[in-house]
Amino acid sequence: MQVQTHVDINSEWGIVAARQAGRKLAREIGFGSVDQARITTAISELARNIYLYANQGQIKIEEVTESGKRGMKIIASDEGPGIKDLRRVMEDGFTTSGGLGAGLPGVKRLMDEFGIESEQDEGTVITTIKWLR
Amino acid sequence: MRIPILKLHDYLLISVQVELDDQTALRFQEDVLEKIHEEGSRGVVIDLTSVEMIDSFIAKVLGDVVDMSNLMGARVVLTGIQPAVAITLIDMGIVLDEVPTALDLEQGLERLQLELEG
Predict the structure, then answer these.
(1) If you count residue pairs, one on A and one on B, with CB atoms under 8 Å apart, how many are there?
(2) What average pLDDT is seen over chain A?
(3) In a designed cystine with B92, which of A6, A104, A106, B17 is the match (CB 3.0 to 4.6 A)?
């Protein structure tokens, strides 16, 4: 049976809860300490983006298998304002929040697969996968 | 939640042993600066041995606390950054520029002494 967990993000505590749930599942799937840190950090960035820009949303984490490969999938979704300029948001150093601007491009580098769908005034869904090596 | 700050002669010693949420990180930043001011500390060691994850927000808070302390005239050394944390930070493209670091608390204190005397 494949494990699946949802964490609602509607406060800063949701960010902590999401990364704790992520670390737990990553460990259970069998990721080493470095990949556990990568996955946990990616979840933290995604959860913070939800909280900062959409106020609330959800992080879904699940185990995935595909043609013999095992991995962990993270889906971050919200019904916030959406992302105006998808290309800029993936540029290093681009920030509208006064942060480091490392968030989304950082997540993309930490993970193996990364996809983003965003519709203005509808929301944003980011799907990302880390494969077990 | 508050992170305890210990005083040792002219130094402050801090070992971060809690999961850092945003509020705790920001309060920590203020507490360190207040304590430097109160105690007239010349150096601060922040030990991160127990920290399993540093994301871009926490990295910014840590980098800022180093710069802010420098402004006040105190040197900060970060110690004990775990291998997985170092790898993740570099993967993310986060460079903690000009932040003094050391392997552990002991070497951190030595580094502070060198910086302050040199």
Answers:
(1) 74
(2) 91
(3) A106
> Who contacts A82 (Cβ-Cβ below 8 Å, separation ≥6)?
A118, A119, A120, A121, A122, A123, A124
Shortest Cα distance from A98 to chain B (angstroms)? 10
Q: What domains appear along chain B, each with residue ranges and CATH number?
A: 5-117 (3.30.750.24)
Domain limits, chain A? 4-131
ipTM comes to 0.90
Q: pTM for this one?
A: 0.92
- Chain A residues with CB under 8 Å of B52 CB are 23, 36-37, 40
DSSP A127: E
Choose which CATH entry (3.90.470.10, 2.40.50.100, 3.90.1300.10, 3.30.565.10) describes domain A4-131.
3.30.565.10
CB contact under 8 Å between B91 and A45, yes or no, is no
Letter for the amino acid at B85? V
Closest of A90, A7, A27, A99 to residue B25, by C-alpha:
A99
Task: Return d(Cα B56, Cα B96) in angstroms, integer.
Answer: 11
Residues of A in contact with B60 (CB under 8 A): 99-100
**Beta-carbon separation of A12 and B87 below 8 A:** no
Q: Quick one: tokens of B100?
A: 């003094």
pLDDT in tens, B26-64: 999 999 999 999 999 999 999 999 999 999 999 999 999
**SS3 of A35, please?**
helix
What are the pLDDT digits (tens) for A49-94?
999 999 999 999 999 999 899 999 999 999 999 988 888 888 877 7
